[in-house]
Description:
Helix content: 25-40%
Number of domains: 2
Distance between the termini: 63 Å
Structural class: alpha/beta
Shape: globular
CATH class of the largest domain: Alpha Beta
Mean pLDDT: 87
Number of strands: 16
Order of helices and strands: EHEEHHEHHEEEEHEEEHEHEHEHEHHEH
CATH architecture of the largest domain: Alpha-Beta Barrel
Radius of gyration: 25 Å
Amino acid sequence: MPAKYHIHVHQVPPRFAPLGKSTVMDWNEGCLRCARCVKEVCPVDAYRKRGFDRKDFVDTIDEFCRDCYRCVQGCPRELIFKAMNPQYRQLGDDYWTPEIITVTWEQATTGKIPVSGAGYGGPFAGEGFDSCWTDMSEIVRPTRDGIHGREYISTTVDLGRKPMFLACDEQGEMQVPPSLLVEIPLPMVLGEPPVTADPHRFRQIMVAAAQKLGTLAVLTREDIGEELRPAASRLVPILPADFKDFDDPLLALVPAVEIPDHPNVVAKMEAIKKRHPHLIVWIKVPADGKAPKRVSALAAAGAEVFHLAGSDHARGLGDAGEMHLKDMVRRCHLKLVEDRLRDAVTLLAGGGIALAEHVAKAIICGADAVLADTALLLSLECRLCRECQNNNPCPIDLPSLNVERGAQRMLNLMGTWNNQLLEVLGAMGMREVRRLRGEVGRVMFKEDLDREIFAPLFSRPEGESRRVGE
């Protein structure tokens, strides 16, 4: 059995004070000078640890407060209360919500799975990934020492094309050429977000994190300079559709390349592989209404890996703009299954993968792995203020961030995501993530339940009136 894959996380304190959902307001006027002030019995010593951030001119108590409200409820004169932090409400947007941003900061800082202790307080079901309910039935009989003990759960995935059958000659020799695969130890590859204040520094950090994680980093060929060349074994250059420099020395060093889908993409793929047989060619397919048929047609033509690219808000593109990424993944997966090509190719899902649960649910919907991008930027303390789009200074001063420090924060985030994936696999009784792909029998989709169960249950024949008393 191979050595167990482990991501070495350790705490990396933030450079800037994290924004809390609420802030503590405490007044001294009217204080009774109790023998034992409620501030002295704070469970997390927030009042003792508090200070004043001279850079941002803010009280730092919100960094330590965990919203237990013990001080609010215990003060006899009601001189302490919690108020909503207006800066918190301004974080992100309707998809990259303040809750997602702050929980990402916490995971990147601590490398630990966030536990509130108060349970889930959100709606029973939402849209997109929140409409998926996974089956955790095996959690009622956990193993003796858990997922981090002697039990082995593999998160390794293979990227590339696999043969549909094996054939041997009379001497028992293989007649089917061996598969050209790239193995990564976790089902996550790293990519660039749509916008960042300092793309150059972000790429340096991302590539350093990919090396430590043992996964791959996807970035455009023109952005790979000499300083990144030593990490070539972990790079996937994105080549333009009109790429012609097949003698590019970098292509001899990298394991794969990505090209955008276009009418002559198959010819381009064959030309690249003819010149560099060791390369695995990824095809980036936009997640529009034609994606399922397009993916199947390209798979039949010999394509190896598909990067199904949605929007940064986990939506489809073009005529599928109202469709969620999970539904696009399901459609592509089922089309490949229908055409008996699913086991031959690799499907990556990218765009709006914001939380650890999105990784597991995207794989259940049919992806082999996912591409993380904006979440990586959040791990570097980004506020998603988008000031950089207006050529304004970055509030977190990304250019000054040390590469090693930033890479460790990315590694911490991926470590927490991977541990949460292990928890899901363990709770489902699975021992490898490959088995999770397309396992829709272990999940319920709200829209399917509404259509197949609740709609017929509550429907009435046309013209039938309600009975008295109903």
